[in-house]
Write a structure and sequence with these properties.
4% strand; single chain
Amino acid sequence: MSVNDLSESFWLCVNVTDDKDALDIVIFVTEFVGLVPGLLVAVLLCRLDGKTRTSLLMLRTLAICSVLQLIINLIGDIYPYSIRTGSYGFNLFLCALWTSRFAFWIFAIIGAHAQVYLCTNRAMQIVSNLQLSFASSRNIDLVYIAGLVLYSTLITVPQAFTIVYDGDECYCSEQLTYLSYLQLAYAQVYIFFIQVLLVNSIVLFTTCFCVVKYVKNTPHEKFMDTLNALSFCNTPEEELKAYTEVKGWSTSTMCIVPMFVSYFISFSYDTTYQFVSAIGLTHYPINGLTQKVGVWIQLIHPALIPYYLFYYIPALRFWVRRRWHWVMGFCRRRKKHHLV
């Protein structure tokens, strides 16, 4: 297959087996390790408030998308079979949404764009000294989210066309019904590799460089990070003051640095593999071992997101510390009670 030959698929369909291997266990552990704290951090972020409304909205979007990726993949691992009903239209919808992995990828791409927007917004505010500027309205923020969702959907929709439904079964096929579907699949691969991986990674690296430079070169007395001020309702004044005093490498905006690292790792493998396959150097094995490795690597980023936020956001860090002290105190009281 040549680079310009868009009449044949770049993937191979591998027969699926019910046998579980060590990689399946690793994937399940990754899902569980990320899902529990992910659900918790998503709920807590929805309870936080602050003047950095846009950044908070993007953090919420990123956290929720991360949780949904893990949930969708976990459900697929627990019940990997097709769901059939008496409705042809509904079966076709499930085929396009679920079996094609569109449901997983759409939240991965929305989360990716939310992360890019978050990092760009924070870097611009810090570098341009705009942290104390007026906050955008809620309507504008909702427009941002709508734009992210719409664009992410447009570039992910071709994923739904890589699966064939014959009225009874939904299955992988190397021969699609329409040539236009195949061309859309190629277009998606190129967009994912060039924009989602390369362009986004360059933007994220640049924002990380700007933030690291600010943290490194700004004197302690002039240091400011308004993202530190995110707080829960009725937080004591002493604790709010402690939030704003967090400076240096543990400041909230520094969370974008490890986020970039795990983002690049997670998106590099699968998007590069598909791109290399699309230009004719190899074939992408759907349901094969190499794709399963890609699924695990793709899960690393959403699984780590809650840990980054628990560490870098002061309100979340203090919340974890209080709960930890309560649990330790409870255990000591129980132990003392049993000794008596």
